[in-house]
Amino acid sequence: MAADNEMVLFADEDICLPGSGRIPGKSWKILVADDEPDVHEITRIALASYQFDGCKVELLAAYSGADVKEILARENDVALILLDVVMERENTGLALVQYIREELNNDLIRIVIRTGQPGKAPEHEVITRYDINDYTAKTELTAQKLFTAVTASLRAYASLKTIEANRQGLERIIHSNASLFESRSLSQFATGVLDELKGILKLNLSTACCQTSLYAATTGGQDIIVLAARGDFKDKEGLPIQAVFSPELMARFQRVWDGEENLFAGDEYLGGVQTKEGARCLLYFDGCSTLSTVEQNLVRIYTTNVGIGFDNLSLTREIVETQKEVIYTLGEIVETRSKETANHVIRVAEFCYLLAQKYGIDPTCAERLKLASPMHDIGKIGIPETILHKPGRLTKEEFEIIKTHAETGYYILKNSKRQILQTAAIVAWQHHEKWDGSGYPQGLSREDIHIYGRITAVADVFDALSHKRCYKDAWSMDRIMELFKKESGKHFDPALMDIFLAEKERFVEINERFPE
Amino acid sequence: MAADNEMVLFADEDICLPGSGRIPGKSWKILVADDEPDVHEITRIALASYQFDGCKVELLAAYSGADVKEILARENDVALILLDVVMERENTGLALVQYIREELNNDLIRIVIRTGQPGKAPEHEVITRYDINDYTAKTELTAQKLFTAVTASLRAYASLKTIEANRQGLERIIHSNASLFESRSLSQFATGVLDELKGILKLNLSTACCQTSLYAATTGGQDIIVLAARGDFKDKEGLPIQAVFSPELMARFQRVWDGEENLFAGDEYLGGVQTKEGARCLLYFDGCSTLSTVEQNLVRIYTTNVGIGFDNLSLTREIVETQKEVIYTLGEIVETRSKETANHVIRVAEFCYLLAQKYGIDPTCAERLKLASPMHDIGKIGIPETILHKPGRLTKEEFEIIKTHAETGYYILKNSKRQILQTAAIVAWQHHEKWDGSGYPQGLSREDIHIYGRITAVADVFDALSHKRCYKDAWSMDRIMELFKKESGKHFDPALMDIFLAEKERFVEINERFPE
Fold first, then answer.
1. What are residue A350's DSSP bridge partners?
2. Are A157 and A192 in the same domain?
3. Distance of CA B139 to the CA centre of its chain
4. Average pLDDT for consecutive 10-residue bins of chain A (516 residues)?
5. Among A125, B51, B179, B423, which is most buried by a count of CB atoms within 10 Å?
6. Least CB-CB distance to B177: which of A177, A332, A421?
7. A149 and A66 co-located in one domain
8. Chain A interface, mutation test: which of B50, B163, B182, most A Cβ atoms within 10 Å?
9. How far apart are CA B264 and CA B279, in angstroms?
10. A271 occurs within a structural domain
11. Are residues B16 and B148 in the same domain?
12. Catalytic residue among A380, A396, A417, A490
């Protein structure tokens, strides 16, 4: 097949660019700028079989300043310009030097002046005043001299390009911190790691890199769990590494695990890092061309950097989870005392979160409400058991005492500056207020009741109705909906009732997920 | 004064190095390696008045391969070597090229071959096989050619050095994340920021940089508070920026605040960053020489990067503080129910932390115990008020019920995987065990009681004794010490009693800090 043949040809022509793996069909671009066609011809002949670092050259021909500008606008990786001074104007060449360095801000391209009229552009002045890299008079330019000048220039270009690629890669790593350190979950973090890695290596011009990649780490237990994966390992997230890697890959992985921090084998990379907090992370990818030293170094730095991010996120997660569990424990303790079940507070939190999201509250506030709402009955700690556990109907006086729990809760929580506890204070205070002003303790109505209070009221009542209590059976959804329709605009905020009716399946789902 | 005169002379000689500010007394180092003294002499004459980029050259003379190696070992910033091929051996020069590039791994130094016997080292072969930057035959080397070769070489060296300095600065910024993201407090973070900044700029060869520096940020309120400061602003930590900056500096600061992200004015830098979380950070320093473009760019990147770190730390701090307050609230609620005061749990936490530290427990575990210990009586939630609040002596049966609070607390907490809650479960379960085995609920003795339990026992009893309760007066320190000496090895772990006796002042201090 023709296409196949072409591909093979390209593969044979593999040519390398500095700082990168071999890229098919690439070569060093040299721009010959001269108004004499002969010069182009001679240069072409002299460099016909020329190679540097295993790569041929591609000559681009410019006959005027305009040509040069047009070519440089089109081609972003010209390595060298062999530049005549006198073209359409006496100083065309020198003006181009300024244009390239100052307007294009291109410091990488090597500029070699070749002048036929040294009198018009004296060597001493030109090399001093202009940011060029070599100066020759055409009269003294032998094929050997051209060969030397081109080789020295391409070598310098390659060095600069390599360090520059490295610099860009490092900047990209720093930049990547912004997104990585923002991740809320390990899988979001790990996916970010693979995305950023691709970006970092792409800068170095490798093609088709990291088609298959994987980030794994210990997350508490002994196993290394796949947190994110691409290509061949797609959909392997959550599995231990030994269930994903082939035996051969496991053997190489074992070497990394046993001490070698990084293993570059052909187009494959395995990098392990032991984090300060004692976790172990693994970064794997293949499908690249062989990585250059610069790229290997970038990958090494990145692997370590990512380890720091992993630690950071793990610590934050542990604290967030602890905070959540402590709050739930607190809520449960209070509810257990008033004979509610442990899952009551979890369900209330989920109902609140759902209502808050659909109501359009800022996501951070919605999360805060989710965390705070389990504390809504905290004030019941101050209600005597005799009243709290009274089997029959409460007297008016007893009910007045029960009602104090809203204010008691508020006073327990209000002094904290922490936003979750401030949210909890509002919820404790206002979750028995009613839309029509007939609630307690303040008798607030409509929007004077904080949205946190309005939401928690719905969540709390729905949970009580939809579950069996010692004094009542569980209500059917139909019966609850009937009541809610009636209470819309009386007990409850009508907007929240609309949300409830539209999303009732999700409320039922939450009940099923956290049964009594 | 002589010393003053000398300083002025140096200042007049200001000479610049690439990628840095002006550095007094510096020049471009060129190593001339040739076994013919005449060549050294001619080179010296030709370059006598030579300058590149406003800087003179300093010629270093080597007459053999050994000389070259010795000089390169001593001087780490040689820009160019003018290298003869045939010296003590026919290939001395070429062997040196390999030595420099491969053994010294020095890719920055420019190597120009100057050979008197081109036959011994043919140009084509040499430029192809060796990593050199130019090749000339001495016969064709005019003063002008030398001038061009030296200028082109120094220019290339300066470019490489600039990008390399930038690369190193970026690597350093990445490296700095490791320490910055580990900071536990804002002031530790801010101090780290200033330290790392110094390191990042030092790489670029500036001298006496950042003598005065300052890092400030909003930490909740409107004011920008100084978090760390050096030099002139030393000891200004904790103050708002307007109390620290002069009116002139405040005016420049205002410009940064009003929109200009970075302000480089002479040897002064003011950089502001608005973080994603809405905080604002300010980085200030002076006392540097004027910063190069590379350095300015590094500082800009660093300022942004530090903003990310600041956000990260602020978020973690908010969560940690919330967690702490929630736990304390939980502890307080339980204690209030059993008529203890709110500060009881705070003091117990502090006593535990002090004992744990002095006992030599791992700092992370000590912090964990501090957070967990307020939950020690959480099981009392299950004790009926009639018993909990009984004014007189408890019956044997009632005391048996009271004793259940240890196990109840354990069951409430034990199912969590979170380390703080696991710690709290141990504390709840074992804080009434006694060293001699006479405690409850399990009757454990000696090291069978977890150190967390042994520590909390001391802390809890000390707090009860040293404060007034409805059933007893506050005991004097003397009386407590007498009891503790008696109970060492009976109720309490003798090692903890030794610590208590040695640190008794600090226990009294904590009592004074958190009074009833």
1. none
2. no
3. 58
4. 33 39 67 95 92 91 97 93 94 95 93 88 89 89 90 91 84 81 80 83 54 83 86 88 90 82 78 83 78 79 85 82 80 68 85 96 91 88 80 87 91 84 94 96 95 96 89 89 94 95 93 89
5. B423
6. A177
7. yes
8. B163
9. 22
10. yes
11. yes
12. A380
Residues A322, B421: C-beta atoms closer than 8 Å: yes
Q: How far is A323 from chain B (nearest CA, A)?
A: 5
Residue B459, domain extent: 338-513
User: CA distances (Å), B287 to each of B5, B17, B26, B390, in order?
Assistant: 21, 18, 19, 71
- Which of A114, A132, A323, A383 to mutate to test binding with chain B, by most B CBs within 10 Å of its CB? A323
How many structural domains comprise chain B?
A: 3
CATH number at residue A228: 3.30.450.40
Query: Would you call B152 and A160 a contact, using CB atoms and an 8 Å cutoff?
Result: no
Per residue in B456-497, pLDDT tens? 999 999 999 999 877 788 999 999 999 999 999 999 999 999
Active site residue A380: yes
Burial annotation A466-475 (CB, 10 A radius, 16+ → b, else e): bbeeeeeeeb
The rounded distance, in Å, linking the Cα atoms of A274 and A260 is 11
Say yes or no: A291 and A214 in one domain: yes
E strand segments, B219-312: 224-230, 262-265, 268-274, 280-286
Selection from A158, A165, A60, A50 nearest residue A109 by Cα:
A158
Is residue B330 domain-resident?
Answer: no
Closest Cβ opposite residue B316 in set A166, A171, A316: A316
% chain B with pLDDT above 90: 43
Residue in this structure with the two tokens 């009508």, named with its chain if needed: A494
CA-to-CA dists, residue A91 to A66, A86, A128, A456, angstroms: 13, 6, 16, 79
Whole-model pTM: value is 0.71
Closest by alpha carbon to B20, among B205, B174, B284, B158?
A: B205
Residue that terminates a domain, selected from B280, B314, B348: B314
Q: Which of A372, A354, A353 minimizes the C-alpha distance to A414?
A: A372
User: Which amino acid is residue B126, in one-letter code?
Assistant: V
A144 and A18 in a common domain: yes
- Alpha-carbon distance of A31 to A81, in angstroms, equals 5
Q: A144 vs chain B: nearest CA distance in angstroms?
A: 7
Domain assignment of residue B321, yes or no: no
CATH of the domain at A501: 1.10.3210.10
Residues B196 and B142 in one domain: no
Looking at A104, A135, A162, which one is the last position of a domain?
A162
In a domain, B333, yes or no: no
3-state secondary structure at position B118:
coil
Residue B419 and residue B308 in one domain: no
Contact A412 B329 (CB under 8 A): yes
Q: Are residues B194 and B79 in the same domain?
A: no
Q: Are B193 and B214 in contact (CB under 8 A)?
A: no
Which burial class, exposed, middle or buried, applies to B168 when counting CB atoms under 10 A from its CB (0-12, 13-18, 19+)?
middle
Reading the block at residue A502, the tokens are 């539209």
Please give the structure tokens belonging to residue B157.
Answer: 């060296």
